[in-house]
Design a protein that fits this description.
It is a single chain. The protein contains 26 helices and 22 strands. By secondary structure, the chain is of the alpha/beta class. The chain has a seven-stranded parallel sheet with strand order 12-13-11-14-15-10-16, with helices on both faces. Strand 12, helix 14 and strand 13 form a beta-alpha-beta unit. The longest helix has 32 residues. GO terms for molecular function: ATP binding; DNA binding; DNA helicase activity; hydrolase activity. It comes from Agrococcus jejuensis. Keywords: ATP-binding, DNA damage, DNA repair, DNA-binding, Helicase, Hydrolase, Nucleotide-binding. InterPro entries: DEAD/DEAH_box_helicase_dom (IPR011545), Helicase_ATP-bd (IPR014001), Helicase_C-like (IPR001650), NA-bd_OB-fold (IPR012340), P-loop_NTPase (IPR027417), RecG/Mfd (IPR047112), RecG_dom3_C (IPR045562), RecG_wedge (IPR033454).
């Protein structure tokens, strides 16, 4: 049979401790001397074979351009997103409009003609019409811009055709049906109709039919593969051997067989991920580090604070201080609600390190946030401690003279607290005694960046801060190599933020009331934020794309900072207000000047992008308006509204959106308005997130992104796999008896990430 498929559609907690297993990561990830020795009696692993050798250079180049694939293992893990069956054979005389049918018939006529119209790409629109008959009736097939069809379908050819029946000009037809011609005598139409067909994520250059053929080609030549899953684990969880799962996922006898194979492959991915993370964690926990017990400096700070620590701040602070006093390096993630006091926990850790003359480096994702951190640290320390510890800022856009002064103070050990952006990672930055690395908003940085900063000291302690609450399963996957502490309680005196959605159904009076409310707050001597997803008119690339946009309509025009700054300055109630703008594209000194003016109360309304998303502390700001709120994620909106209501007055957040009720975009916005619980919203964010990379290159640094697992759907698999990985590492910390597993863990990382993680 010859097949032509023409479908268009396919384009926490931190879990159990691993401290009892203490392999060095290098031992776990070192590649065996040759692949033939990956396990007792194992064979070379065909999954590592180059696609160039398997399918030829030209096809390999297409696969790399479309999906980034280079190995056979990459291609065979390109799993179907669904299965279809062609269905029961139907006589043409029995066809009903709207039915999906499969028929066997003979081609009676075929013609291609131009319509005089053009398609969306401006090409002349051609239609190929084919008339087929099974002897009982006639059916028409319609193909658009497919003149090559005449090379395969011509008068007298018999084949099988599958599609949905429609009517055009009183004639029943199938539009772009899938078909297969019978070129061999004895071809079995019934078997063809019952076959389960995998449908793959595809592109215009690599449609699902081509992917299906390529995958079957490499599977036929693959041979045995090294299975990293231990036999006892596979038996306990009733999983298939890896090779069997690969064969069945791509050519299942039934859809149920495909689901069973998919379960095995998801289990494989979870097990490899958890083994890698737990081995990494055990390695990091085994690194010797200089103990940094707290002393007089911390006591002086605590005595000077005008408020009591919250119970969570004290508990988490005690965990951090215990880690710092240990002889092995700390690797701890502190997560907490917006305004819960994570920065104070970090400052207290810095003072413990400073007690012995050590230095702390705080890495922030933006200059605005870095400058804000420095001001907050200086204010918290007070004049005496600040003068003694000499906190300093280092960013790439500082003047050359300011950078030189900062670099000298850091190298000499004069500055025991250093705050900076990516500029801290430069080779020219040297520390006298780097004892603590603090990473703010971990998701903004990659493994390599974190490790680059750590390597400027001798096994320094690491503290990661995030104001984005992390669901337990995410913590087990993206942050499984870190101990996790959580701050849930807010400091006393914080009023809850009221959040309201202003949607397209709102009356003009209600919509206008948004800006009256901003003016009311300004008249009362308070400040407001107005957030836009774009910087300038015509900017369509910022913000979260809405699923409501159509290919024909294109992206909608986004609210931008420049336009709204002008509008608000001319608003009849805000003409006397001091209104400024702030974006990430502004020069460093300009951004800093604006933020200083905002903090000083010299700006009434700040119109900004998400540059103010995290860390910006303006206690007098009480109102936030988010334009095109549907362009942002759930957690991002939660972070944004956390910028208001941080002082004596309650906060108000108004979410303006054009998203209609019932759309996913509107559901995201409504979810934020419904609760102030960031941990609950993190789960909602996870549910709404489209299929994609949970770890991503920003977390993993390499080829360890999740391909099959979805943390909301596969929590049970991830938890079971983590328990199994713990047991394997406890019994065989260096994976000496699990060579295939050791090799698979090694392959999870690209060379740069491997080097970063093994170079302590």
């Amino acid at each position: 049979m010859r097949t032509r498929c023409l479908s268009r559609a396919d384009s926490t907690d931190d879990g159990p401790s691993a401290s009892h297993a203490s392999p060095t990561l290098a031992a776990v990830t070192d590649r065996p001397a040759d692949d033939a020795g990956v396990a007792d009696g194992a064979v070379p692993d065909g999954l590592e074979r180059s696609l160039r050798n398997a399918v030829g250079q030209k096809t390999a180049d297409r696969l790399k351009r479309a999906f980034g694939y280079e190995r056979v293992g990459d291609l065979v893990m390109h799993v179907p997103r669904r299965y279809v069956t062609r269905g029961e054979l139907t006589d043409l005389s029995e066809l009903q409009v709207g039915d999906h049918v499969t028929v066997v018939a003979e081609v009676r006529s075929i013609e291609t003609r131009e319509t005089g119209k053009r398609d969306r790409r401006g090409r002349p629109l051609k239609i190929t019409s084919v008339a087929i008959s099974d002897g009982t009736d006639t059916l028409h097939l319609t193909f658009f811009n497919s003149p090559w069809i005449t090379n395969e379908l011509h008068r007298g050819v018999t084949g099988m055709f599958s599609g949905t029946v429609s009517v055009f000009r009183d004639q029943r037809q199938l539009t772009h049906p899938e078909y297969e011609t019978f070129e061999e005598e004895g071809a079995d139409p019934t078997a063809w109709a019952a076959e389960v067909i995998p449908v793959y994520p595809a592109t215009a250059t690599l449609p699902t039919k081509d992917l299906r053929a390529l995958i079957q080609q490499v599977l036929a030549d693959l041979g045995p593969v090294a299975d990293p899953l231990p036999d006892d684990v596979r038996r306990e969880h009733r999983l298939l051997p890896l090779r069997t799962a690969l064969d069945r996922i791509h050519a299942p006898e039934s859809e149920e067989a495909g689901r069973v194979a998919m379960h095995t492959l998801r289990w494989h991915e979870a097990f490899l991920l958890e083994t890698y993370l737990l081995a990494t964690r055990a390695w990091m926990q085994s690194l010797p580090s200089t103990p940094r017990p707290a002393g007089a400096l911390l006591a002086r700070l605590d005595a000077s604070l005008p408020y009591e620590l919250t119970p969570d701040q004290r508990t988490v602070g005690d965990e951090v201080q215990a880690d710092l006093a240990d002889r092995t390096s700390m690797h701890r993630l502190v997560q907490g609600e917006v305004g819960s006091g994570k920065t104070l926990v970090a400052i207290r850790a810095m003072l413990a390190v400073a007690e012995s003359g050590g230095q702390s480096a705080l890495l922030a994702p933006t200059e605005v946030l870095a400058s804000q951190h420095l001001r907050s640290i200086v204010a918290t320390l007070g004049p005496d401690l600040a003068a003694e510890l000499h906190p300093v800022l280092l960013t790439g856009q500082m003047s050359t003279s300011d950078q030189k002064r900062a670099l000298l103070a850091i190298a000499a050990g004069q500055s025991r607290i250093v705050v900076g952006t990516h500029a801290l990672l430069a080779d020219r930055v040297t520390f006298a005694d780097l004892g603590l690395v603090v990473i703010d908003e971990q998701h903004r940085f990659g493994v390599e960046q974190r490790e680059t900063l750590r390597q400027k000291g001798v096994a320094p302690h690491t503290l990661v801060l995030t104001a984005t609450p992390i669901p337990r399963t995410i913590a087990m996957t993206a942050f499984g190599d870190l101990d996790v502490s959580t701050i849930r309680t807010l400091p006393p005196g914080r009023s809850p933020i009221q959040t309201h959605v202003v949607g397209p159904e709102a009356s003009p009076a209600v919509a206008n009331r948004v800006w009256d409310r901003v003016a009311d707050e300004v008249d009362a001597g308070r400040q407001a934020f107005v957030v836009c997803p774009a910087i300038a008119p015509g900017d369509v690339e910022r913000g979260m794309p809405s699923e409501d946009e159509s290919d024909e309509g294109g992206p909608k025009v986004l609210a931008d900072v420049e336009t709204w700054t002008r509008r608000l300055r001319t608003h009849h109630r805000l003409r006397g207000a001091r209104i400024e703008s702030l974006t990430g594209a502004m020069a460093s000194d300009e951004k800093d000047a604006v933020m200083r003016a905002v903090v000083a109360g010299d700006v009434d309304v700040i119109v900004a992008t998400t540059v103010i998303e995290v860390g910006v502390d303006v206690p007098n700001a009480t109102t936030m308006v988010v334009n095109d709120a549907d362009r942002f994620g759930v957690s991002q909106l939660h972070q944004l509204r956390g910028r208001v209501g941080r002082g004596a007055h309650a906060g108000l957040c108004l979410l303006r959106t054009t998203a209609e009720d019932g759309t996913l975009a509107r559901e995201r916005v409504d979810a934020v308005a419904a609760t102030l619980d960031g941990f609950a919203l993190a789960e909602v964010d996870l549910e709404h997130r489209r299929e994609g990379d949970v770890l991503g290159t920003t977390q993993s640094g390499g080829r360890s992104s999740l391909r099959l697992l979805r943390v909301t759907r596969d929590r049970a698999i991830i938890e079971q796999a983590r328990d199994a990985a713990l047991a394997v590492l406890a019994a065989d910390p260096r994976l000496e008896r699990h060579g295939a597993l050791r090799l698979a863990v090694h392959r999870r990382l690209d060379p740069d990430a491997r080097a970063a993680l093994t170079s302590a």
